[in-house]
Write a structure and sequence with these properties.
Blueprint lengths: L36 H33 L13 E2 L3 H6 L20 E9 L5 H8 L7 H11 L1 E9 L3 H14 L2 E7 L5 H15 L1 E9 L3 E2 L1 H8 L8 E10 L19 E14 H9 L11 H11 L3 E4 L14 E2 L11 H9 L2 H4 L10
Parallel strand pairs: 2-3, 2-5, 3-4, 7-9
Antiparallel strand pairs: 1-4, 5-8, 6-10, 7-8
Helix pairs in contact: 3-10, 6-8, 6-9
Amino acid sequence: MPLLSHHRTSASPPPSSAAPSYTSKPDKPHRPAPAPPYSRRILLPVVAFSVVSLAIGVAGVSFSLYALRRPGPSPVFRCGRSVDTFRALYSASGSRKLGDGGNGGLATAADRPKLLGLVGIQTGFDSADRRAAIRSTWLASDPDGLLRLEQATGLSFRFVIGRSKDATKMTRLQKEVDEYKDFMLIDVEEEYLRLPYKTLAYFKAAFELFEAEYYVKADDDIYLRPDRLATLLAKERKHSLTYIGCMKKGPVVTDPKLKWYEKSGHLIGTEYFLHGYGPMYVLSAEVVASLATARNNSLRMFSNEDVTIGSWMLAMNVYHEDNRAICDPRCTPTSVAVWDIPKCSGLCRPATKMRELHKIDMCSKSPTLPPDDE
């Protein structure tokens, strides 16, 4: 289609301005020709695209500013995954790790550190005061101190905690994690009635994250001597399948109104089999390796966590090592852990009692005795 409404009749050069027009009619002033319809069809999409692009750009900038200014997210728990919040500090410290990480002796986030023992301190969302008391007494209160303790004893210490549906609790936990870095986060609902499930999840996670000779389960209401625990674990043993604890027996609790009621008591009988008290016990690496590979639904869960563990130990034909030094009711030259047995399942008034014990020289400053020759 021609762009002009007139066209010339010949290809000769146009006449000069003084020459008469080639038409006999006088020229009339021309009005601007309206834009062809197809030009408008092109213009409208261009304008629309520009507006949409501008809106996307503004939204992107706004989201970036919001992401930078919003508080840090709550801990993320992925199904079947556990997190050692201290792990990155091995490399950051530039210090030698305890095992051979294949990186010139330096630990990396992908390593499975070799240890004499891993101590998992079982804790909950409402036990911040107990954790504070532990950090101010027998455990280090900062990541550097925790690393030095690990290097001195061969033991790693982590507070073990699951997840909660309460966003406020999770946010509060994240702040504590960021400050101390001394947690193992496991993918299990934190609930008292499900302690056997949490304990199994702990051992599975501990075996996945650490290569230890022994794995210790401890509650957050006991007073512990890390140096004496290291001495105990370093002792030579004949049995690779070993279960160390304060062993006990007793009648099965069948009254639903009582705290230790065992709803599956009919499977046990009138008296419990030999098993360790729950506040602290130790499993050797070979025992934990078997638990780590077991399907969750292949192990029977009783109401009480210590009974549950004891039943597994019977089935696995382990050696029961009864050691009263890990459940001493008072501080002595040989006590490894102190708690108010049998008055309380751990220390009575643990946050207060821990600080009181720490002021006693026999608890905090008496020398570590050499291992027995037995």
